[in-house]
Amino acid sequence: MRLLRTIGIIGSVAALLLSAGIAFAEESTANTDAVVPVAASRPAVAPIRVEVKKAAQERAEDLRKEAQKRVETAREEAKTLLETKREEAKAVMETKREEAKKLMETKREEAKALMEKKREEAKTLMETKREEAKSLMEAKREKAEKRLSDIKDKAKQEVAQRLAKQLEELNSRWTDRFMDTLDRYVSVLQKIQNRADIAADAGKDVVATTAAIQSANTAIETARASVIAQAAKTYVLDTAAITTTTATTTDKGQSELMKNLKTAFQNIHKTLFKDLYALRDGQMTDARKAVQSALQTLGKIPGVNEGSSATSTAATSN
User: Fold this and answer.
1) Which of 2, 65, 137, 206 would be a feasible disulfide site paired with 234, CB 3.0-4.6 Å?
2) pLDDT digits (tens, 9 = 90+) for 66-115
């Protein structure tokens, strides 16, 4: 009985084990069947990954190109803006340059007009003084001519008359030349002023040059006044000093007359050239040195010496 029961238990266990084996086998088969399709589907994953990667690369390339395009656009816009600003600044600078140029031209024209006015006034005044001097020396000239007519030797008489006339004309020639020289100094000084104006517009220090120009103008005006005063002087024979102890109809009288005339002419000549040399070596020289000083002061300003030879020559040639 116990044996049968034991056999029954063993049989039950065997049946259970057999059932478990069959079930495991079926499960294994089922699992195998389930895995096979997955394994079979794996070869399709690679093309998908390639497509995804390619799409990502294309997208990245598109983004890169788009970013590059934006950079190029921004660069072009910045370049255009810079060019615009540059052109605007150039236009403003050009406008200011033109305004400064017009102002400078206006100043030059005004200075030129003033210079011409002063020149004409000085010329007119000098002519007036000469006419006044001529009126004053007419009486003296008539007396001198009458005295010269006492010379019996006609050749000597003509020489004396010619010499008297030359002495009168010498003063006019010298004063005319002095006035022309001063006019040239004024022209040179105007050129110096023009160059100083250019330097000032460029932001350079022209204080010393301006002061030197003013000093030169003063020296020129002083010299001009002295020339006018010199032009008003007369140099005619003083008949009161031409005396004889005997009648001029005698040989002794003629000898005394010629001797005294010679002395009178020498005195006139000496006085005339003393006055002319004093003016030449005095006020005229002061004016020339003042203009030279203005030119030298201008030359000390950096960048204004180009093309200065003509001005320098004109300033130092007299």
Assistant:
1) 137
2) 898 889 889 888 988 988 888 888 888 777 777 777 777 787 787 778 87
The answer to whether position 90 is within a domain reads: no
In a domain, 2, yes or no: no
The pLDDT tens digits of the residues spanning 261-282 come to 888 888 889 999 999 999 999 9
Q: What angle do CA 199, 203, 207 make, to 5 degrees?
A: 65
Location of structure tokens 């007369």: 234
Q: What is the DSSP string of 35-91?
A: HHHHHHHGGGHHHHHHHHHHHHHHHHHHHHHHHHHHHHHHHHHHHHHHHHHHHHHHH
Q: Is the pTM of this model over 0.85?
A: no
Domain count, the chain: 1
Domain range for 249: 112-316
| Residues 277-296 pLDDT 10s | 999 999 999 999 999 999 99
